[in-house]
Amino acid sequence: NAGVTQTPKFQVLKTGQSMTLQCAQDMNHNSMYWYRQDPGMGLRLIYYSASEGTTDKGEVPNGYNVSRLNKREFSLRLESAAPSQTSVYFCASSVRTGNTGELFFGEGSRLTVL
Amino acid sequence: AQKITQTQPGMFVQEKEAVTLDCTYDTSDPSYGLFWYKQPSSGEMIFLIYQGSYDQQNATEGRYSLNFQKARKSANLVISASQLGDSAMYFCAMREVGNTGGFKTIFGAGTRLFVKA
Fold it and tell me: Who among A40, A55, A101 is closest to B95 (CB)?
């Protein structure tokens, strides 16, 4: 059972380059999320998608764009990468309402911007 | 606005003793949920325990319990009988309903727990 799958696991970019982080879940969850994790700052919400066709900003959306391609897939794009975007990125999914709303996480993607 | 605060960057506990990790929160949504997640050095996020804002009793899951004090807006995690494998980063999180419906979950900065043999 794959759960939440993120690609790539590791990426090194030069300042100004663009890239897309891909995320897919096979749990039939409506809601998907992108977080970044930096030392001492916990996980900060970048964008989330409550359901297919909707996206909303989180705590730190600047410099990022997202696409909810379908119910399974939620991508995060860095149009012009900056060193401040060096981080570990986590994708997560959950049910939309009801239940606890527990997050199911991918393994993380480590991005370094030089 | 949603806010989660964890004021203990690091904690030490002796093996087999209990430890409390602090978490305070702020929200204007009357319906919210509180979580604790564990992140070992391997990096994966592991769900530990959940407390709903309307739950009357404190949540428990094995050696984990959540000390929910609604009036104080605190949701402390208690780990009983600590084990060496409990050494990890612990995150408190809160979910509320977002602008577009569905859940929006934010996290605190985390507490790193060290269990001493």
Answer: A101
What would the pLDDT profile of B2-43 be if each residue is shown by its tens digit? 899 999 999 999 999 999 999 999 998 888 999 999 999 999
Single-letter amino acid code for the residue at A103: L
Of B9, B50, B99, the CB nearest to A100: B50
Binning pLDDT at 50, 70 and 90, where does residue A97 land?
A: low
Residues from chain B that touch A94, judged by Cβ atoms under 8 A, are 103, 105
For A34-68, write each residue's pLDDT tens digit.
999 998 889 999 999 988 889 999 999 999 999 99
A51, A92, A100 ranked by CB distance to B33: nearest: A100
Cβ(A16)–Cβ(A28) below 8 Å: no
Identify the three-state secondary structure at position A84.
Answer: helix
CA distance B46 to A107: 11
Q: In 3D, which of B89, B69, B23, B34 has the Cα closest to residue A101? A: B34
As a 3-state breakdown, chain B gives helix, strand, coil percent values, each rounded to 5, of: 5, 55, 45
User: Is A64's Cβ below 8 Å from some Cβ in B?
Assistant: no
pLDDT digits (tens, 9 = 90+) for B55-106: 999 999 999 999 999 999 999 999 999 999 999 999 999 998 877 777 889 9
CB–CB of B109 and A41 under 8 A?
Answer: yes
3-class SS at B110? coil
Q: Is B56 on the interface with A (CB under 8 A)?
A: no
